Amino acid sequence: MTQNRSATLAALAVLALALLAAPAASRAQGVPSDSTLRGFEPTGEYMLVVNGKPAPAEIFQNDKLPAFLILSSALPAPVMLTPRTGSVETVNLMKVAKQKDGSVDLLADAVLAPMGQFQMDGENVAFTVDGKKLSLNPKPALTGTRKGADLLANLPEYVRGSRAYAPNAPAIAALNRDAKPVVVHVVFGSWCPHCRQHVPMLLRVENQVKNPKIRFEYYGIPRPPDGWKDPEVKRLGVKAIPTAIVYVNGVEAGRIEGQAWTAPEVELNKIVNGPAAKGK
Amino acid sequence: MESTQTPTARLQMDALARSPRPILWWIGTFAGAFLACVLLFAVWAKALDPSAFADEIRTEGLDFLLPAHAVALLALALEAGLGLALLLGLRRKWVLVPATLLVAFFVFLNGRSWWLAAHGLRDAAASCGCFGNLVQRTPGQAFWQDLLLLVPALLLAWVGRERRAPLFPPLRTAVAVLGALAVVIFAWQAPGLPLDDLATRLRPGVKVGEICAGEGGQRVCLDSLIPELRRGESLVVMAKLDDAALTKAIDPLNAFAGGAGNPTLWLLTAATAAEQRAFFWKWGPSFQIREAPPELLRPLYRRLPRSFKVRDGRVTRTFGGLPPLSKAASSPDHPKRSST
Question: Are B266 and B237 in contact (CB under 8 A)?
Fold first, then answer.
């Protein structure tokens, strides 16, 4: 067990060093990024499975191509998967350049070596590299009560969405002045594309609200159909996700649902400082 | 038929016609006309999009004897015939008895839906996506609305009938029958007619922020599903992911999505995340796919695929099928690949 952990840590360290070295190498060579194979963004939608066991990996997605790039110490080289063509290709790690914003580019002189084709095995993408049976599987849903930091640590898309959102400043200022104890309980699904759009906005709001009286918590539900049968979903009467239930002084004062997710901080401020919360 | 009456009977009829109508006759006639208008309005809405009506028939399990489309056409003929007959003042038993049965059936269906929903047998558990079950009106609301709209008018339509009037006045009967037939032919041909803008909520000029589904807090609008529609120019394709028309067009759509200066391309679908993932790996779209709840999507089309162009949050053009991609850009350069 300890040996396994040490091996994993060592592998992660090697991977981190290699990733740090890659941009340095590119700068040293003065080679620009490939015009097409650039802008691979981190994704938390999939996990790498090697010979039936989850393996540490950084997975990047390029929406424009589209293609996936997998960097893992369990792989002899970074692997690129291209949907539709089904191609599996490897690329020299030194031709991978990590950018400051967390995205990854392949350098213009990167050469892709074909390694065969991937196969769909249900929702999993199965392929073989150097005799290893590999699979890119959808990550299990993030379930149960979580903190915002958990979401940011597990879902890179949420980090990107959160960074891109600029909350309404007067609403944030009003929330920071509020003296009532408030709990914002967000029911969401890490598998739900609609949540991927809107929950990061609330994470940004959480980041900007410095009021210790306002607490945010996130409750992840399983993939459907189980998700809609979740006891918490039934208990709270949640009909669509994401839904944020706002408790003021321990009593539900309102919900952020549907169209209100356009600017969640504005709705939250309305609920916390609006007539519904008066006297609570 | 009227001409075969005896001279005495004809004189009595003339005398009746000349005498002022009793108040009950007027009440009954107006109630019948009101009921007729409600029925004919419903016929118009359903005849424009008979596929949606057939879907409802399937949902209610009424296609056990005939295919849903055949049931839809028969139901439209009946509803249109009764509506026209009532509008023309034909308050005979052969009109009012079927009309009563029809209204009773509508109320029964709504009552059943209400009961099923109340007992958790038709609820959000059936959903597979982010949206449980967005309701435009609750089953309870639907029940009471239909009950209040149809039943009083129907009961009053029985009041003050002329019992000695001919059973089948030839002209009015013919108009009702021919009208019902015309509705059937129209509904049969409607899917092929260019009536999408008329039949759906999606037409040029409409703001995407006003295309919504759901009630109260659960209300979801198109511009919250694709916030990027609020600014700039976009092209939105609504399609089922397994539609051959869509999968055949992936290359030109990808080329269009990658073309500089083209509107941003979106695919809007009611498919679940798992279905979207399967589509992604099989077809490799380079444009974004967004999930929309069926309750929001269904009123926007009669047949899929359907597409529309949006500029700064307002629909500027609609297209039956996939959009013409005349300005499609050429495919982006492919990366170098080694020959091994």
Answer: yes
Q: Does A123 touch chain B (CB under 8 A)?
A: yes
Residue to substitute from B121, B122, B127, B130, interface A, most A β-carbons within 10 A? B130
Give the closest residue to B332 by CA, choosing from B268, B287, B275.
B287
Residue A50 forms contact with B (CB below 8 Å): no
Model confidence pLDDT, tens digit, residues A55-93: 999 999 998 889 999 999 999 999 999 998 999 999 999
Sequence-ordered strand ranges (E) for chain A: 41-42, 46-50, 53-55, 58-62, 67-71, 79-82, 87-90, 96-98, 104-106, 113-117, 119-121, 124-129, 132-138, 144-146, 182-188, 214-220, 243-248, 251-256
Closest CA of chain A from B303, distance in Å:
25
One-character DSSP codes across B248-292: HTHHHHHHHHHSTTPPEEEEEE---HHHHHHHHHHH--SSEEEE-
DSSP per residue, B156-213:
HHTTT--TTS-SS-HHHHHHHHHHHHHHHHHHHHGGGSS-HHHHSS--TT-BGGG-EE
Of B130, B68, B71, B137, residue with least CA distance to B294: B130
Quick check: B286 and A255 CB within 8 A? no
Spatial CB neighbours of B313, under 8 Å, sequence gap ≥ 6: B207, B208, B209, B223, B229, B230, B231
Structure confidence at residue A269 (pLDDT) = 94
Cα-Cα end-to-end distance for chain B: 91
Please report, as a single letter, which amino acid is at residue A213: K
- What letter represents residue B140's amino acid? G
Question: Which of A65, A112, A194 is nearest residue B338 as measured by Cβ atoms?
Answer: A112
Q: Given B134, B332, B340, which is nearest A113 (Cβ)?
A: B340
Q: How far apart are CA B210 and CA B207, in angstroms?
A: 5
Residue A135: the pLDDT is: 94
Q: Do B274 and A123 touch (CB under 8 A)?
A: yes
- Beta bridge partners of residue B301, listed in sequence order: none
Q: Which helix or strand (DSSP H or E) is residue A86 part of?
A: none
Could you read off the pLDDT of A1-41 as tens digits, one per residue? 444 555 555 555 545 544 444 444 444 456 777 777 888 99
| Mean of pLDDT over chain A | 86
ipTM of the complex: 0.74
Two tokens at A203? 């994470």
Contact B217 A255 (CB under 8 A): yes
Kindly give the pairing relationship between strand B306-311 and strand A96-98: unpaired
Question: Does the beta carbon of A229 lie under 8 angstroms from any beta carbon of chain B?
Answer: yes
Residues comprising chain B, all counted: 340
Which chain B residues are closer than 8 Å to A260 by Cβ? Answer: 217
